[in-house]
Amino acid sequence: MKKVFVLFLVMISIQGLNAQEKKHEGKFEQLGTQLPTPNTYRTGSGAPGRDYWQQKADYVIDVELDDQTQTINGSETITYTNNSPDVLTYLWVQLDQNVRAKDSSSPKIRSSRIYRDSIPAKAFQSYTIGETGYEGGYNIKAVKDQNNKALPHLINKTMMRVELPQAMNTGDQFTFSIDWSYKVYDRMMEDGRGGYEYFPEDGNYSYSCAQWFPRMCVYDDVNGWQNKQFLGRGEFALPFGDYKVKLTVPADHIVAATGELQNAKNVLTSDQYKRFQKAKKTFDKPVLIVTQDEAKKKEKKPNYKKKSTWEFHAKNVRDFAFATSRKFIWDAMAVKLDNSAPLAMSFYPKEGNPLWEKESTVAVKNTLEVYSERTFEYPYPVAISVHAANQGMEYPMICFNYGRPKEDGTYSDRLRDGMISVIVHEVGHNYFPMIVNSDERQWTWMDEGLNTFLERETKRIRYSDLSLNWGSPKGIVPYMKGDKKYIRPIMTNSENIRQFGYNAYAKPSAALTVLRETVMGPELFDHAFKEYAQRWAFKHPKPADFFRTMEDASAVDLDWFWKGWFYSTDHVDVALDNVKWFRLKNEKPGLENKIKSTQIAGSGGSEEKGSETNSDFSNGYEEIVLTDTDPRFYGEYKNRVDDEAIRRGYADKNFYELSFKNNGGIPTPLIIEWEYKDGTKEVEKIPAEIWRMNESETKKVFAKDKEVVNIVLDPYLETADTNTEDNVFPKKEEKSKFDKFKEKAGE
């Protein structure tokens, strides 16, 4: 008889497991082969391995800007060091300006249509047709070795292969030079990261020069040469190196650039030099180095003939950018960090004031302080914000940012919010990807997503009056609930992403916010995030290095999280499907009650007690009986529990069985707010692993001392749940009840 009983239980268990397997979709399986196999270059912990290596590219550049023809002429010498274990027979150089050359693929592959019968002329020319008359692209004049001998080279659109006269072995260096020129484009007509803005009122230009020189591609242990063509969106993978750059411009220009200015006495007036030195020791507020009155005087009488050369040196950077104009006002202040005092600086025309003088450099300071606390101390000597219309773009130590008041100097709260946000974001890019040097051509989220998350954290800590909606769980809901045909997984190449801003910026930021606030908790998350930043500072991390480090440094298994948020287009939508209320029945247990309780605790058949769906608590509670424990449950154990004591312990408790449905697909923690009859409230958090045995639906019983009158799931909108109407019980009050919680959350 006992054998038959055991066989029956085994059969029931197998049937249950088979049923679960049919429902199981693998959301809690490990990423496994989706991540690359660890090796001596990149470990299974997410840290660089003992044999990790990376290449180095050092530059000496001499360039002149012609302010009358808007042309750049340059010559650069590159010293390339092969630290890889591989033999190299050629080098790849990026020619990003060729994205605007006549033979560029970018305009050819850009979809366009006539979407209405009335189209703004500029939009039609620039975007619909894509013909502005600009003749872009590099003029490569010469490629030579250090003996001035021409090197064979092949230009394939935005990439140039340089043939080596002899193979480079491990540890070898090769020095070669490139002479080149190109015409700078008008950013008002040509959408891009560099270029100039023309000011017709005074006839002057402001230049923000980016991707302005041929740059080495990355060669690494994962991809070999990263020579994927630049199509306009996917940004840049670059090796670290040291730069010495001379920039020749009109003598009345002010120049901002990556690195430290080497000849300030030669290019500044005596008064400006004194103010510059004062700023280096001033920590409480910005010091004006070039005043608005000084800039306005130069605007009125431009001097095109006289030239001056500004020299900048930068160590261990992956790129170099500069901005120059006679219109620039310049202010600066020192930032006190634990072991250094970098100089925060802003350059802007009068059109940026009074907003820029008030906010820009302070925003740079705030960013350096918060990011340094959350990752590593800012290692460079300067951090610069330059005013450039309709722009937000980053480079080592310098970035270009929008935010222009009206002509009368007034500005809205929204404009201020946007300007501060973009400055924090672009200055923050010094950390990701300028130092934690991810491959933007492949994985935009590794710099934009991580940086948007820290931008939001900086605003939360330093700017309580600014909106925190962008990049938040609440803010991502409209995108997450949208049509899936317009959505791509976060793990999508930059050029193939739909809804770029949401996918590469906002969704990863929201995911990290959920990870910090709801899944891991701030302490564990912050430690692991800092570990990743410090492990990969001045190195080239890949997605697996981030995923593995976050788990390694926290002892939290997050594969389910990466799969749901980063590898799929699923969303969060959990429904509080049903609630049952039970209390113990006060009677002596007997055989009849034993049978009844077995039915209650059974496999959910048609005779299960309370199987109906409830909409409120109006029917009161249902009674259940705790029977004496059958000896068979003890097996070989000789001791026994006190059944009566257990009954007494639960006699006055309220038991609530909550049924949840996962309608969105992403497993998520359950945040439950209980409101009791006496008016008090309690918030309870259940880890996402509650879905591990059934990813579609789950139930859980809670024991409460007090009677519950209202239950809300995700009351403060922390999980990005796309449908909050099914998150409440009683159901008849769900809309009005949840409106109250939305108000609390700031909607």
TrEMBL record:
<dbReference type="InterPro" id="IPR027268">
    <property type="entry name" value="Peptidase_M4/M1_CTD_sf"/>
</dbReference>
<feature type="domain" description="Peptidase M1 membrane alanine aminopeptidase">
    <location>
        <begin position="367"/>
        <end position="565"/>
    </location>
</feature>
<keyword id="KW-0031">Aminopeptidase</keyword>
<keyword id="KW-0378">Hydrolase</keyword>
<dbReference type="InterPro" id="IPR050344">
    <property type="entry name" value="Peptidase_M1_aminopeptidases"/>
</dbReference>
<protein>
    <submittedName>
        <fullName>M1 family metallopeptidase</fullName>
        <ecNumber>3.4.11.-</ecNumber>
    </submittedName>
</protein>
<dbReference type="GO" id="GO:0004177">
    <property type="term" value="F:aminopeptidase activity"/>
</dbReference>
<dbReference type="Pfam" id="PF01433">
    <property type="entry name" value="Peptidase_M1"/>
</dbReference>
<keyword id="KW-0645">Protease</keyword>
<keyword id="KW-0732">Signal</keyword>
<dbReference type="InterPro" id="IPR014782">
    <property type="entry name" value="Peptidase_M1_dom"/>
</dbReference>
<feature type="signal peptide">
    <location>
        <begin position="1"/>
        <end position="19"/>
    </location>
</feature>
